[in-house]
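thought: user wants a sequence for this fold. calling inverse folding tool.
action: design(structure=
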C-alpha cells in the first residue's frame, strides 16, 4: 500500500480536520520512531500504520479498531497493517496485544501525541519546537487537562516499550518536532 492509497482510504472514512491532522501527526511520529527503533527499511510501513490507525473512529466510534479490520480486509490490505492498527485498541476495544516494536510504539504514542499537541496550544508559540518535558509532565499530572487523553494508556505504552515515561515523552516531542510543519500544513 502506498501513502497515497492510504490517504485516499483515510479520506473516504474521515473528513473532520481534527481527525485528519491527528492521523498525519501520528504518521510522522511513527516514521520518526521507525528510525529510532532501528527499522529504517520499514519507515513507510510504520507511517501508513500511523496514518490509518483511527480509520474507523469518525464514522464508527462504537466499533473503533473493530470496523477498521473489516474495512481493510475487504480491500485486501496487508494483514500486518490490519493487525498493527487494531492493536492500539488493546484492552479498550480489542484483545489484540501489541507485540512488534511498531505495534507497541503506536499504542504508546497515540494518546500521547494528543496530550503534547494540547500542551503546544497553550504555549505562546503554539508549537512543539520549544516544548520541554517539564511542561508536558505538569499537564500530564492535571487530569482535567486534555481529559480525553488516557494517562493510563500512555503509561502502559511506556511500560510495553520498556522505557520510562519521561523518555517516551521526550522522544515523542522530538518526533512531533520532526513533522510539525506537515501536520500544521493544510489538510487536502
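)
observation: tool returned 188 residues.
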Amino acid at each position: 500500500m502506498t501513502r497515497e492509497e492510504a490517504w485516499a482510504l483515510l479520506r473516504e472514512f474521515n473528513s473532520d480536520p481534527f481527525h485528519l491532522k491527528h492521523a498525519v501527526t501520528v504518521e510522522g511520529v511513527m516514521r520518526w520512531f521507525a528510525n529510532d527503533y532501528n527499522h529504517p527499511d520499514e519507515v513507510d510501513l510504520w507511517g501508513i500504520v500511523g496514518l490509518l490507525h483511527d480509520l474507523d473512529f469518525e464514522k464508527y466510534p462504537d466499533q473503533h479498531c473493530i470496523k477498521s479490520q473489516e474495512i481493510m480486509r475487504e480491500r485486501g490490505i496487508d494483514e500486518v497493517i490490519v493487525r498493527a492498527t487494531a492493536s492500539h485498541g488493546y484492552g479498550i476495544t480489542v484483545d489484540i496485544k501489541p507485540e512488534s516494536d511498531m505495534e507497541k510504539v503506536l499504542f504508546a504514542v497515540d494518546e500521547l501525541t494528543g496530550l503534547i499537541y494540547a500542551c503546544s496550544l497553550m504555549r505562546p508559540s503554539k508549537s512543539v519546537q520549544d516544548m520541554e518535558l517539564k511542561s508536558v509532565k505538569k499537564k500530564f499530572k492535571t487530569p482535567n487537562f486534555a481529559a480525553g487523553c488516557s494517562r493510563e494508556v500512555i503509561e502502559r505504552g511506556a511500560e510495553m516499550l520498556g522505557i520510562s515515561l519521561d523518555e517516551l515523552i521526550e522522544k515523542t516531542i522530538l518526533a512531533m518536532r520532526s513533522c510539525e510543519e506537515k501536520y500544521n500544513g493544510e489538510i487536502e
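thought: summarizing for user.
answer: Here is the designed sequence. Residues 65 and 86 are 5 Å apart (CA to CA).
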